[in-house]
């Protein structure tokens, strides 16, 4: 691995898509990780915020969300179920690829999965990270942690890790949201007879807010995505696809909103916050809100707490009916879509034959140099992309 910061022209010209078939020994399911009991909560939060100088008061604030659920994050069970569902789908399709699971921030850690892979003699892994969009937190940080885990375990020269493309516009990921929005609108139409869906319903697509500086640097700079970067552009493009498919072309108002902001108030993050957006709706005559957790692959703490608790409460406070649409979780479309993404790399599928529902994709197999770098944390080597 090279530690040189500036990309050589040759590296910058590397392949965007890999259309040579690649032999893999296993799939690496890479996730965030979460505490499994009250005693894990603070050590977990220290792992997450390592090197960021997040004060203890803020850690306690976040700890409180976990404490309310017995110190257990829902994410681990979600990943156990996803791993089992992937294994079942692979077996059904006669694909002989074992699935290893490793997290960035809690047991089972990435390094444990890599040691396991090494002991089993695996040399070539294809990673699926449980995160669909482009940004530091949702792509590059996984790739940096791959590099760090290979380094820590002394497996850098032995094991290689590739990563499937960001799958925000893959039909397997998008279809569950289409189904969810369709059902929510149908339910409101039934609950409120004669509701004018073009005025009285609003669809809020919500995702994790990120620092504006990270948003601006998300995706390859050369693509010119503007101040909110590829991160916001990808969400907007997917939201448009979901609305078109779920409404059959009826003009129902929607907007992209953000949630789960952290960091100091002086630091700009993407806005508007979902709760502020909800507060504006009654004045416009809206009666019913469809909350679509477009940025989340499964029912994370952010979904259970910030949406099911706080955002639905905001709806109630403002006299609005609210429905939160399901996350993909282990929806069969999502699970088989993830297997399709692995097969793209196994088979070296030509780009034109790859499924992608927006004009932005199919996204890169091989991340561009410097893509999604974090200016606050500084340069760190990353794997599964072009050097550096
Ligand atoms: C874009 C994004 C996703 C992508 C969606 C995805 O990958 O799915 C994501 C996922 C997750 N984030 C999670 C939890 C946390 N995120 C934190 C902090 C932060 N997240 C950020 C962004 C994102 N985060 C950012 C910019 C920060 C601030 C750090 C900084 O200063 O740069 C903190 C620290 C405390 C705090 O600051 O709130 C915690 C505890 C969990 C686990 C939840 C569970 O247990 O179910 C998951 C899946
Ligand atoms: Fe987060």
From TrEMBL:
Q: Which Pfam families match?
A: Ferrochelatase (PF00762)
Gene name, Swiss-Prot/TrEMBL: cpfC
Q: Which InterPro entries match?
A: Ferrochelatase (IPR001015), Ferrochelatase_AS (IPR019772), Ferrochelatase_C (IPR033644), Ferrochelatase_N (IPR033659)
Binding annotation for Fe(2+): 208, 302
Reaction catalyzed: Fe-coproporphyrin III + 2 H(+) = coproporphyrin III + Fe(2+)
Q: What this chain does, per the record?
A: Involved in coproporphyrin-dependent heme b biosynthesis. Catalyzes the insertion of ferrous iron into coproporphyrin III to form Fe-coproporphyrin III.
Q: What subcellular locations does the record give?
A: Cytoplasm
Q: Would you say which domain of life the source belongs to?
A: Bacteria
Q: What class of enzyme is it?
A: lyase
| Binding residues for Fe-coproporphyrin III | 73, 142
Q: What is its EC number?
A: 4.99.1.9
UniProt GO MF annotations: lyase activity
Write out the entry's keywords from A to Z: Cytoplasm, Heme biosynthesis, Iron, Lyase, Metal-binding, Porphyrin biosynthesis
Q: What is this protein called?
A: Coproporphyrin III ferrochelatase
| Primary location class | cytoplasm
UniProt record similarity statement: Belongs to the ferrochelatase family.
Pathway assignment reads: Porphyrin-containing compound metabolism; protoheme biosynthesis
């Amino acid at each position: 691995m090279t530690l040189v910061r500036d990309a050589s022209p040759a590296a910058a010209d590397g392949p965007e898509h890999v259309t040579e078939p690649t032999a893999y020994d296993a799939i690496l399911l890479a996730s965030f990780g979460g505490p499994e009991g009250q005693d894990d909560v603070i050590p977990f939060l220290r792992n997450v915020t390592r090197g960021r100088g997040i004060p203890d008061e803020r850690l306690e604030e976040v700890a409180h969300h976990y404490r309310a659920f017995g110190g257990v994050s829902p994410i681990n069970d979600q990943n156990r179920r996803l791993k089992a569902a992937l294994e079942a789908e692979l077996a059904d399709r006669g694909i002989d690829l074992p699935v290893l699971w490793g997290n960035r921030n809690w047991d089972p850690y990435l390094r444990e999965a890599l040691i396991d892979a090494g002991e089993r003699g695996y040399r070539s892994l294809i990673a699926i990270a449980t995160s669909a969009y482009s940004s530091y937190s949702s792509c590059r940080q996984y790739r940096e942690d791959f590099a760090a885990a290979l380094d820590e375990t002394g497996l850098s020269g032995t094991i290689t890790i590739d990563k499937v493309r960001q799958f925000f516009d893959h039909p397997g990921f998008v279809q569950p949201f289409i189904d969810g929005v369709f059902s929510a609108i149908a339910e409101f139409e039934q609950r409120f007879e004669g509701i004018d869906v073009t005025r009285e319903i609003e669809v809020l697509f919500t995702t994790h807010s990120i620092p504006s500086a990270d948003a601006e640097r998300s995706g390859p700079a050369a693509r010119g995505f503007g101040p909110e970067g590829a991160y916001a552009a990808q969400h907007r493009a997917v939201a448009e696809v979901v609305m078109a498919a779920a409404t059959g072309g009826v003009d129902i108002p929607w907007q992209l909103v953000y949630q789960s902001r952290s960091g100091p108030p002086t630091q700009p993050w993407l806005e508007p916050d979902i709760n502020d957006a909800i507060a504006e709706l009654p004045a416009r005559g809206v009666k019913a809100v469809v909350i679509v957790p477009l940025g989340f692959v499964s029912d994370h703490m952010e979904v259970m707490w910030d949406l099911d608790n706080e955002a639905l409460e905001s709806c109630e406070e403002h006299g609005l009916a609210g429905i939160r649409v399901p996350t993909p979780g282990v929806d069969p479309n999502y699970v088989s879509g993830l297997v399709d993404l692995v097969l793209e790399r196994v088979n070296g599928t030509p780009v034109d034959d790859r499924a992608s529902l927006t004009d932005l994709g199919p996204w890169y197999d091989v991340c561009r140099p410097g893509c999604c770098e974090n200016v606050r944390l500084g340069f760190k080597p990353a794997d599964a992309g072009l050097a550096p």
